Amino acid sequence: MIKKLKKETVILFVILLFLIFLSIPQVSSYPRFFDRLKENLITGEAPTQTATLSITVGNNPPVIGNVTLDEADSITLTENGNKSFSFSFVVTDADGLNNIINGSAVANISRTGETSRYNDTFVNPNDGGCKAVNNVGTNGKNFSCIINVVFYDAAGSWNISVRANDSNNNFAQNTTKTFTIQESTNIALNPSTITYPSVTPNQKNVSASINLTITNTGNDDLSGRESTGETLNITAITLVPSTGTTFIPASNFTIGEVNSTGTHIMDYCDPSITANVTRLRNVTDAVGFSNFTGAINGSSLLAQAVGNIRSFGICLIHAPNDLASATYSTANSGAWTILAF
Amino acid sequence: MDNISLLKMKNKTKFGIFGVFLLLLIISSFNVSSSGVSSPYWDENPMYAQPDEVKEFSYTLQNMVGTENIQMKAETEGDKNIIHLVDTNTIYNVPIGSSDVKVPVKITVPKDAKEGDEFQVGVRFTAISENKGQPVTIGAAFSKGFKVIVGKPTPIVNENTNAEVGKSLLSNQVIGFLILVVILIILLFAIKYFHKKRENK
Questions:
Q1: Disulfide check for A59: which of A168, A267, B5, B57 has CB 3.0–4.6 Å away?
Q2: Is B138 in contact with A212 (Cβ distance < 8 A)?
């Protein structure tokens, strides 16, 4: 009797196991069913999932084909602005194109460490989503999407994710397409000319009449660290008069951040503050006529919406004793250059 | 016209000239020079090519923020046997509001290059500054360099592809199976327990 019972139990177990195997693909076809289990979204209240599941089993889900970019990959961003990045994809549904919901097509682009950009009405109702632009045969619709990419979005490979629903709440997603954003190194200099008040020979620490504001208007981090090779450099040329032999060497100038913090005491005329002030003198310079090329100390200008602007003061730390009365300028020697890598 | 009127008129003219001078000074003070260069290749995104292969691409110059038209001079940097500017005139006009001034560049990998060889190349763009009669004129320059590596890039596994979706589905199925097996075992134990209880009676 006991043996018979054991045999029955084993048979029952095997049959139930077989049934479980058969039932799993059906259950898991319900979108995110087990994800919902993991996220504790099933509370036992209002069992709407059960109703949805029964409809899903008898319906053909939509399928999203390849995502096509409207422009050549890689893409160039727009300096200090937004760029409309557009692409399209075809959704097909075996139950006919009318089963695909026009307003359901949404998209986003993402990259690790970067803010994702959306055209997704489920995230932001004002986005508008992707637009159904034309039918493809009897079962397909072509959707066109536009996503705004911001000027400081990082260079590199980005993922595109698109999604669409049908009227039975089946959804399709395609996350296979990637595209590349080019690296854009952009800076704005304001003003592009620097003036000084009149100076007298041997005068010290004369600040320029206006500070130089440099704005990073691209997506390239100008880190200010030489180790990364992405510093802001300056090439300064000796100022000379239109006639005459006297001059003001570049080594008599300093450049430094005006609104810096830390050890900086806002004195960009003090070359001893090497963290934020740069004397425009090469180490090997002999006394006299002197040009300079090198990094601007502390000139970190990251690619971001806020904090991408720095103001620099340029100081004539000493007007040479022998200066003859004249206008000294770069006009007869060569313009100064702010170099970004 | 009496002397007083003449004096007033002279003063007005003086103030007018001074005003114009001041205005010019203010306008010249607010000149913004803005420019930039976009490149499909950079330090972290090198170009891969085969020996004897010729590849062409373009840098893109922009001037979207500036208040003045600019000209930029392009000069190759690094291994100049590898990189060449396609255009003979290498000074490019970049008008205000432009974002797509193309600078075509050609890369020619030597025939005798070996797999794994690397060449550092690039282009320096320097804004040509006009003399504005001010002591210090400042312009911008950009150095856009990258490596040309002989060979093929190492395939990068995309973190966000359908492959992962497949993996996720598989794990969901396994989780579901395990949950149901546990329920089944509990059910069997319960049946056995009640069966024994009934037998004991």
A1: A168
A2: yes
Contact B176 A338 (CB under 8 A): no
- pLDDT tens per residue, range A141-180: 999 999 999 999 999 999 999 999 999 999 999 999 999 9
Single out the residue in B108, B126, B150 at which a domain terminates: B150
- Contact list, B44 vs chain A (CB under 8 Å): 155-156
Cα–Cα distance for residue pair A132/A141, rounded to 1 Å: 6
Considering the entire predicted model, what is its pTM? 0.75
A173 phi and psi, to 5 degrees? -140, 145
User: CA–CA separation, A175 vs A109, rounded Å?
Assistant: 10
pLDDT digits (tens, 9 = 90+) for A213-263: 999 999 999 876 655 656 789 999 999 998 999 999 999 999 998 866 655
Does residue B17 belong to any structural domain of this protein?
no
Considering only residues 293 to 322 of chain A, which have any Cβ-Cβ distance to chain B shorter than 8 Å?
A: 314
A327 close contact with B: CB closer than 8 A: yes
**Same-domain check for residues B112 and B183:** no
Residues of A in Cβ contact (< 8 Å) with B140: 187, 189, 337-340
- A296-330 burial, b at 16+ Cβ within 10 Å, e below that, comes to bbbbbbebeeeebebbbbbbbbbbeeebeeeebbb
Query: Which CATH number fits the domain A63-181, given the four candidates 3.60.40.10, 2.60.40.1930, 1.10.150.390, 1.10.10.10?
Result: 2.60.40.1930
